[in-house]
Amino acid sequence: MKKIVLLLLLSVSTFAFAQTDTLSITLENVKYPYPVSFINLQTEGQDIRMAYMDVKAQNPNGKSIILFHGKNFGGYYWTNVIKALSDKGYRVIVPDQIGFGKSSKPFIHYSFHLLARFNKQLLDSLGISKTAVLGHSMGGMLATRFALMYPGVTSKLLLENPIGLEDYRTIIPYSSTEDQYKTELKTSAASVKKYYESSYFPEWKPEYDYLVQIAAGVTKSADFPRYAKVAAMTFTMIFEQPVVYEFPLLKVPTVLFIGTADKTIVGKGALSKEDQQKYGQYIILGKTIAAKIKGSKLIEFANVGHIPHLQVPDAFLKALIANVD
Q1: At what angle do helices 209-217 and 2-14 cross, to 10 degrees?
Q2: Can you tell me the distance from the alpha carbon of 226 to that of 28, in angstroms, rounded to the nearest whole number?
Q3: Residue 121: is its pLDDT beyond 90?
Q4: 3-class DSSP assignment, residue 145
Q5: In angstroms, rounded to a whole number, what is the distance separating the alpha carbons of residues 268 and 171?
Q6: Integer-rounded Cα radius of gyration of the chain
Q7: What is the largest CA-CA distance in the chain?
Q8: CA quadruple 53, 54, 56, 61: dihedral positive or negative?
Q9: 80: helix, strand or coil
C-alpha cells in the first residue's frame, strides 16, 4: 500500500505546476513517466505522428498489453498501472491516440475504426502480434472496436469504466461539431474541475489536481483553438459511433472493471438535473453490459467513481494482475 501511494505522489509531483502555467497542445512541457517515442503515420493526405511509451520488463514473461486512455487524458495517468504490469513481466505499450496527448492534432474524420487501425500499425511496427488490451473511458470504446476488428490480435479485452455503455444519441440533444467547438472554447480550470468532481471522483483529493492542471493548461496556449476543434471532433466520434449494440459480437475473453459510483455521461451538461439522475448509472450499466458479453467477468468497486486505477489503486491493480491473462 505504501509503495503504491508513494508512486502516485511521485507521479503527481511530476505535474506540480500552477494552474496559470501554459501547456502546449502536444504537451511538450509535460514529462511522461517513461521515455516517449513516435510512429509516423499518414491519413487524408496528412503526415501525422503518434506518441507512445514502450516499457519493457526487466524480467519479461513474453506477454504484452496495450493501454488506451480516456478522452480527457493521455498516457501520463497510467503511471502506476504501467509499473505494476511491468513488474509482473509484461511489455506495456501506452499510446497517446491521434488527437490526444503528445500526438498530432490533425483536422480529420475521427473514427474508432481509424484509431484502431493506427494502433494495429503501431503494434505491427513493434513486432507484437498478440496482446491484451486495457481501455479506460473513451479508451474502452476504442478497445472494444479494436477487439471487434482484430480478435486474433486481442488475447484479452479489459474495460475500466468504459463510456459508450449507453447510446448517447438517444439521451443527449444533438450538438453539431461546430456547436461543440464553441463549448470547448469555454473550457477553464474551474469547468474542468467541476465536471471531474461531479462525474469522476465521489470525493476530491489533492492528488487529482494535476489532471485538472493538464486539461486546463492547454487552454492558455495560442494553439488552443486547434485543440478545442479536435476535442469537438472526437466528441462527435463518441456521440455518433456507439459500440453498445456490438458487445454481444465480441469473441475474445472480456473483463469489466466498474467503479459503481461512476456517473459519467458524455454531454452531461445538456441534460436536466432530473435526466442526469436517470443515465450514467454504472452500478446498473456494468451488470447490463456484462450480461450482453458471452463469458465475460464483472469486477465491481463499491463507492468508486470513473477512474478506479487512481481512486483505489491497490484494489484495482490486484484485480487487474489477477485477470490480465
Answers
A1: 20
A2: 16
A3: yes
A4: helix
A5: 9
A6: 18
A7: 52
A8: positive
A9: helix
Lowest mean pLDDT among 96-105, 132-141, 231-240, 261-270: 261-270
Q: Domains in the chain, start-ordered, CATH in brackets? A: 2-323 (3.40.50.1820)
Secondary element (H or E) of residue 221:
none
Cross-sheet strand order for the sheet of 154-160: 36-43, 46-55, 91-95, 64-68, 131-136, 154-160, 254-259, 297-301
CA 225 – CA 105 distance, rounded (Å): 11
DSSP string, 9-43: HHHHHHT---TT----TT-TTS--SS-EEEEEEEE
Distance in angstroms (rounded) separating the CA atoms of residues 39 and 48: 9
The sign one gets for the Cα dihedral 200, 203, 208, 212 is positive
Q: What's the rounded Cα separation, in Å, for the pair 79 and 8?
A: 8
As given in the structure block, the three cell numbers for residue 205 are: 483529493
HSE-up (13 A, CA, CB side) for residue 6: 3
> For residue 285, is pLDDT > 60?
yes
Q: Please measure the distance between the N-terminal and C-terminal CA atoms of the chain and give it in whole angstroms.
A: 23
Among 135, 118, 137, 141, which residue's Cα sits nearest to residue 49? 118
pLDDT, tens digit, for every residue of 239-282? Answer: 999 999 999 999 999 999 999 999 999 998 899 989 888 999 99
User: How many other CB atoms sit within 10 Å of the CB of residue 235?
Assistant: 23
Q: Residue 199 has what DSSP assignment?
A: I
Neighbour-count burial of 164, counting CB atoms closer than 10 A to its CB (0-12 exposed, 13-18 middle, 19+ buried): buried
Looking at residue 199, its pLDDT comes to 83
Contact 111, 85 (CB under 8 A): no
Helical packing angle, 177-184 and 224-240, nearest 10° = 130
